[in-house]
């Protein structure tokens, strides 16, 4: 149980810090400063983290966003390392979260049915 609490705490800390980093540290990028981290899932050994994100810019091409995230990934991880108190910062894998778009599509379909 203690490990689960530790895992949750680290996930929450990484989520908060990543959101701050993306908004504040990359003002001159095309897409990164408009991203929102929605969820962080850490592996049990804290060595890997899946980072689910979405964009505030609904017109931004997802492939371009992914490309820019990959371009700045090492720098993001380096900044994160300076912000969190962990023995080692996990390897980050960013995944685009399209659940909001899916929910909007479902809502639209349901409205059309009525």
Automatic annotation (TrEMBL):
Protein location: Cytoplasm
Keywords: Cytoplasm, Ribosome biogenesis
Top-level taxonomic group: Bacteria
InterPro entries: KH_dom-like_a/b, RbfA, RbfA_dom_sf, Ribosome-bd_factorA_CS
Broad class of the protein's primary localization: cytoplasm
GO cellular component entries: cytosol
Pfam families linked: RBFA
Gene3D superfamilies: 3.30.300.20
Gene Ontology biological-process annotations: maturation of SSU-rRNA
Molecular function via GO: ribosomal small subunit binding
PANTHER family, A to Z: RIBOSOME-BINDING FACTOR A, CHLOROPLASTIC-RELATED
Family per record: Belongs to the RbfA family.
Biological function: One of several proteins that assist in the late maturation steps of the functional core of the 30S ribosomal subunit. Associates with free 30S ribosomal subunits (but not with 30S subunits that are part of 70S ribosomes or polysomes). Required for efficient processing of 16S rRNA. May interact with the 5'-terminal helix region of 16S rRNA.
Quaternary structure and partners: Monomer. Binds 30S ribosomal subunits, but not 50S ribosomal subunits or 70S ribosomes.
Protein name: Ribosome-binding factor A
Native source species: Spiroplasma helicoides
Gene name of this polypeptide: rbfA
